[in-house]
Amino acid sequence: MKLFAFIAAAFASPALKSSGCADGVHPHESDCTKYFQCSHGNRWPDQSCPEGLLFNPELLVCDWPENVDCDKECADGVHAHESKCDAYYQCSHGHRWPDQPCPEGLLFNANLLVCDWPENVDCGSRN
Known about the structure:
Elements (H helix, E strand, L loop, with lengths): L1 H10 L5 E2 L5 E4 L6 E6 L2 E2 L3 E2 L5 E3 L4 E3 L13 E4 L6 E6 L2 E2 L3 E2 L5 E3 L4 E3 L11
Antiparallel strand pairs: 1-4, 2-3, 3-4, 3-5, 6-7, 8-9, 9-10, 9-11, 12-13
């Protein structure tokens, strides 16, 4: 019996988090492209909406960005990363998409909004 308990514990889902959350589907706390599900007080791993969609907390489905009010303030367009000189991010409909790295050996030129040769880039306080 002890062997069965050990094997059962070894194969139990390590990603399940006991958090006391209400059963159902919920928007992610900080990422409008994600959501999570709770069952019996346990939070299951975060899920991502298909590319180009955001999670609509009113309908509890992935939806077009224009139908979702993501609380983050982010001007549409391409932006230099706040602390990484070799990365940038893009915003659309107020949503910040995941950071993007420049190809190896290049840095993000905040003036031209492209990855560029290091001699053409002033990183300022960005590393």
